[in-house]
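QUALITY CONTROL LOG
STEP: pairwise intake check
CHECKER ROLE: data steward
CRITERIA: each record must contain a sequence immediately followed by its structure tokens, with no blank fields

ENTRY 1 OF 2
RESULT FIELD BELOW
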Amino acid sequence: MVMLQPRSSGLFTTLEAGNSHEPSCRHCRDQRFWRWRGAASDCRTPVFELVYAAGEGSAGSRLADRYPGVPDSLAGMVIEKWDPAALPKLDLLFASLPTGTSAAALARVPGEVRIVDVGGDHRHVEGWAYGLADVWPDRIEGQTRVANPGCYPAATLNALAPLLVDRLIEPGNIVVDAKTGISGAGRGGGADGRFSYADCNENLQPYGLLKHVHMPEIASTIEQLSGGNAAGLVFTPHLVPMTRGVLATIYCRGRATTGECLDAARRFYAGRAFVRATEKPPQTKWATGSNLSFVSYAADPERNLVIAMGVVDNLGKGAAGQAVQNANLMFGLPETAGLEGMPVWP
């Protein structure tokens, strides 16, 4: 799909979104393709060139039929049928399949092809680096297999990481209350219509209670960051009537002050291009259309309470933006290549 320059024979590919999924970024395949494409084509240096696209239900369509705003040079490109056994010669593959289906498919991809998997099958799996790029860039550099974090974990873990590393909060009994926009469900509104306009407009829906697929990913990362036990973790996602964005409000136990939390985040992310620690509680619109991540904190030591807040664009840092960031790290490119655009405002 995208050629890495000045290397030769380098292609990226991705897959199209299905029509019946939970509203979780792991399924948002149509949107992700064009966030990837957009991030690559916006780069002001000759890093990426789009040369190949593959899909399932969209196979046979021209790119311009699916995405009318693509450049003229790409408009006539035809989306090919996804078949991991019949790929052209590749340097790097972006894959985004529904959780539970990518492991078998990507096992058929030749070992010399580097992969960023935006699906959920390879997160914290042996042989795959976990691509939490702002927290563990050194673990991603030079890797051949990287598992992109989910959208909710991206917002949650960026906010928690500085506090866990500095032991400002307890790793257990953390409560995550998260909200996301409808684009995380992909195109089509779902087979049962749950994500149609009529169902989502002026409505707030909790879902995935007690068993959301991102729970193990969040718990495992908390334990790695803290060296402790994440027992008692509660994660409750909600679907809100907006197009994109994730806000995670996270309740933790700890005696730190608000200032200590902010100082920890500013130290932890010093020199990191995409994370902003702000005194003002973050808003989803701050990150729209970007790879930025906003974190903030409010703490009351007398109540043994720390509230951490994290915001990302679910299609940017929560999916395609972080995927491109991981690809840059994998190939030794500037981490910010193609990702320095400002958020869309208002």
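ENTRY 2 OF 2
RESULT FIELD BELOW
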Amino acid sequence: MFPIAATGKFEIERDISHYEQYPASSILAEFAVYNGNTAMRIAHCQFEPQSGDFDANLARVVQGLKDAQRDRVEIVSFPECFLTGYQNDEERARKHAFSVDSPQMLELLHASSEFDPTFIVGFNETRGELLYNTAAIVHRGHLLGAYSKCAAYMKFHTQGREFPVFERHTVSDGVVKFGVIICADGGYIEPSRILSIKGARVIFAPHYNFIGPSGLISHFMKVRADHTARAVENSVYFVRGNNVTVGEEMSITGYEGVGYGDSYVIDPHGEILARTQRHVEDMLICDIRPNHPSLQDRGWRVGRSIWSAQQFGPALQEALDSLDQ
């Protein structure tokens, strides 16, 4: 099932008074990107979730969707595990988790049914006895599908191994295919490569970060390098959508840290087109051109990522096999 085509005129002139609760950078950032009639508009809500408070977090999703719709956003993301909080112990994670056929999911679908933006929102998902770190992809009250984190480092999370690609019928850029990975997944080559080979032109990566002081700078540098590589090697737009900790951190306990934000959009050339302010709630809005001919990877006639996998895959497997000998 895919979202229906959006209708209405694409507007450049907008009333921005509804963004008074966000820093000025979130409004100005979108003017640093593409203008023209081939753009689609994406967004990320860099919000602070309330651990275990589904109702409060759902209300923030609804507010984010209202703002996104008012500004003609077509796809908007929210942070990793936003609906439940991202607890770092199994007892609390299971306590607040829910399944895709639960009353909580039905409430999410009902509350979002009046809004046109396709959105991505995370939660701890129960699937039988298993617990997954999952993002739901929703449009106008319909669950289009879900993606579960494939490099989940919490021992109580089961690893996801499916990589779905979704479609959005845009106002000005035709059908845009997009995929989702979650946080640490972006530090590995294969998840983004799989999505791009399946046709994804935009990869959304919801995050939840709470980083200890000693590793803060190295984390900041390595994450940006990882994401730049994923964008360039696959010729895609990469959306790092983080949380932020403004008050006391309630989800992750046991150490002091910083949830600094720093959400951004990287284009296929490795340029950061727009980013949020750090240490504050913010809304990132960015116009992109995922289907523009100049941004399609035609290296070796099939694209560099596909060619690389085809040419070096056997040698890579041989090297892996040798480790077991």
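INTAKE CHECK: passed for both entries
DESCRIPTIVE NOTE, ENTRY 2: The domain at 17-291 is CATH 3.60.110.10 (Nitrilase/N-carbamoyl-D-aminoacid amidohydrolase).
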